[in-house]
Write a structure and sequence with these properties.
The protein has about 140 residues and is mostly beta strands. Helix content is about 10%, strand content about 40%. It has a single domain (about 25-135), classed as Sandwich (Immunoglobulin-like). The radius of gyration is 18 Å and the shape is globular.
Length: about 140
C-alpha cells in the first residue's frame, strides 16, 4: 500500500470519529467530563424500567451526598427522575461511587437521554453542569 493512501485512510477515520459517525456520543455541559466517569449506561444502550445507574463522580458534583438523575424522551418529556446517592464520603475532590435506581413511564419515542445533573446548591447558572448519555427504549 502506498504511504499516501494509508495516511488518507487514517485522516478519514479520524474525521469520522470526530464527527460522531460511529454511533451516539455522550455530551457535556460545563466540563462535566472532568467530574463523572465509569457510568454503567453506555451511549445507544437500550434501557428498561426499573433502571439502575452506577458510576463515579467527584465530590463537588454532589450536595449533601446527592445529585439528580433523570431520563427524558426525544421530545424532552421527563419520564423519571431520582437522586443518586454517594456510596462513600462525598466531601472530597476525589471520585466517589454513586448509585440510583428508579422506575420510569413508558416512552412514546424510540430514543431519549439519561441526564446526570450536578447538584448546584448555589443556584448560580455558571455552576450548572450535566453529563448526558443518549439511550434507546
Amino acid at each position: 500500500m502506498k504511504p499516501y493512501i494509508l495516511i488518507s485512510a487514517i485522516v478519514a477515520m479520524v474525521v469520522l470519529i470526530g464527527a460522531g459517525c460511529f454511533g451516539p456520543q455522550i455530551t457535556y455541559t460545563n466540563n462535566a467530563e472532568d467530574y463523572v466517569r465509569n457510568v454503567n449506561i453506555k451511549p445507544g444502550q437500550k434501557v428498561t424500567s426499573p433502571l439502575t445507574v452506577t458510576g463515579e463522580a467527584k465530590g463537588p458534583w454532589y450536595f449533601e451526598a446527592n445529585f439528580l438523575v433523570k431520563l427524558i424522551d426525544a421530545n424532552g418529556k421527563v419520564l423519571g427522575q431520582r437522586g443518586a446517592q454517594a456510596q462513600g464520603e462525598w466531601m472530597t475532590e476525589n471520585y466517589v461511587p454513586f448509585k440510583v435506581e428508579f422506575s420510569f413511564s413508558p416512552a412514546t419515542t424510540t430514543s431519549g437521554t439519561l441526564i446526570l445533573e450536578r447538584d448546584n446548591a448555589s443556584g448560580l447558572p455558571q455552576y450548572d453542569a450535566s453529563y448526558n448519555i443518549p439511550i434507546t427504549f
